[in-house]
């Protein structure tokens, strides 16, 4: 692959997604490569949020019934639009709560003892929530949480996950994409393996929704959670989403709340909870309209271009980035090279990753650091181009050639 600037520009000129790029706001002079942590502002999201504010201004409380879409059904309507991105029926998807709250909501429903299989490279909040649910049942998490170890510190072998499943396994809960290395797991294979042992299969899709197509219903996944502020670009603290397979409809939610009540009778104000007959039952509190409204707009580019072209460009961008990093002997690539095993970002490894990340930021390249040695670089396909990636490569090269990072402080505390 040619990794030169001219080739990068030619790729950008032929990019079928170029038409949507101007709708996103990149701070002037910056190269934004952190969309796997927080997506950027878009005119679509801003318009949708502004419209919700105007509806509040003009309609007041009537917005719950007269807004478009009406606020009362916000979670369901957004779920309908998200369903194609995760390969689910509309009734199986709803927007609400936060990712961690949704993990609690689903585990309090489906976990009643036994072992839960996770892995040591999970995002920490998954373990926090699962351990808390075990303690709620009076169980010792050290005895019931089966943690699959990594062989290389970067990735998880699916064979090791499958080997960890036993007749004592109640739930297999894995990320779709490992947050540090960007490894993409085979959700169908893992779901089939869990079901073969009588266990449920749940997934955290936070690092794949909006970057990788899914077919949750077809694969028989039992439940899943995700956030909408990464690749979906719905803004900081945006409302999260969840999926529950239709075969579980009618199951009493473990964390019942009035927003999960059957919509037809919700305002009869009965003190007995009647859950909605779909994924909406796992909503808890009133939908935060201003944290949900931007998602109405930020989904528009996905609906216009489709998730498959987004995935195709994402893989091309990360292939290009990997080729560039391979030409820089000071760095290593910690992300699987097989496209079927790779999410939307690349883990660039260096023993001085933290200070290199800080040097990149001083140069206007927005990335993040993950311990112990990873600079995560995410060329989000809706607003990042090939020439952007080439420029990032030049910055990486110059920083190590000049040892520019040596003038920067070593890691302290705070957000990275």
From TrEMBL:
GO cellular component, one term: cytoplasm
Cofactor: pyridoxal 5'-phosphate
Single GO term (MF): kynureninase activity
Keyword Hydrolase: yes
Residue intervals passing through the bilayer: none
Alphabetized Pfam families for the sequence: KYNU_C (PF22580)
Subunit structure: Homodimer.
Name of the protein: Kynureninase
Species annotation: Haladaptatus paucihalophilus DX253
